[in-house]
Amino acid sequence: NFSCKKFRAGIVNHHALASDLLAAFFRTLERCRPEIKTIIILSPDHFGQASADVTTHRLPYRVSGAEVSIDERAVGRLSAAIKSFREDATPFVREHGIGALLPFLKASSPDVQIVPVIIRNQIDETSRNEMAAWLRNELKNPATFIVVSSDMSHYLSADVAWAKQVETDRALSDSDTRFFVTAKDDHADNGESIAIV
Fold first, then answer.
1. Residue 75 and residue 80: Cα distance in Å, rounded?
2. Residue 2 confidence (pLDDT)
3. Interior CA angle at 30 toward 12 and 113, to 5°?
4. How far apart are CA 121 and CA 173, in angstroms?
5. How does pLDDT run across 96-146, given as a tens digit for each residue?
6. What pLDDT shows up at residue 1?
7. CB under 8 Å to 32, separation ≥6 — which residues?
8. Which of these, 154, 173, 178, 174, lies nearest to 164 by C-alpha position?
């Protein structure tokens, strides 16, 4: 009974223990936005391997023998838009902020291309603004969608996690960029990307 809306971005977890949420997110996205051709995935830098504020690459992914291809034109526009930018596949080898999503994306939308992006922790304000401007430009194409890959409330008891979730929900409702710029694992592990979007 979910009513589809023409939403342009969403937040999804990257923790495999919540695979039901990942599957539901991408099934809903395919049902509500079947026209999508490119998904920009914004991941945190879990292992601190990114050497620039914004990092991406152009190598395709393999998922169960099938290929998830990269929107290379979008990568080219990204490289021109961000001063602190690096094209480097190395940080993506272990980055589950991208990898955990791809089997679910491929199962529901096999022909969609992606732009995998790692946003460095403590990205500076200039890069954050450049990234936001690039995303605004990319969203002029109605076949583009943004996915923020972010887990919420890490390592907390259920009661504390629910209290933190109320704070996070309020910040989302209020578009409180400052809240997400400073968010840590108690609220979101990719607050920088949420702030950008």
1. 9
2. 59
3. 80
4. 23
5. 999 999 999 999 999 999 999 999 999 999 999 999 999 999 999 999 999
6. 44
7. 2, 4, 5, 6, 7
8. 154
Q: How confident is the model at residue 4 (pLDDT cuts 50, 70, 90)?
A: confident
108 in Cβ contact with 65 (< 8 Å):
no
pTM of the model: 0.96
Burial of 169 (0-12, 13-18, 19+ CB in 10 A): exposed
How many Cβ atoms sit within 10 Å of the Cβ of residue 85? 21
Distance CA 116, CA 98 (A): 7
Q: What residue ranges in 120-159 does DSSP mark as E strands?
A: 144-149
| CB burial string 129-152: b at 16+ within 10 A, e below | ebbeebbeebeeeeebbbbbbbbb
What are the tens digits of pLDDT across the range 148-163? 999 998 789 999 999 9
Q: How far is CA 170 from CA 95, 157, 187, in A?
A: 29, 20, 11
Q: Extract the tokens encoding 42.
A: 């914004």
Task: Give the pLDDT score at 106.
Answer: 97
Q: Comparing C-alpha atoms, which of 115, 188, 116, 179 is closest to residue 150? A: 188
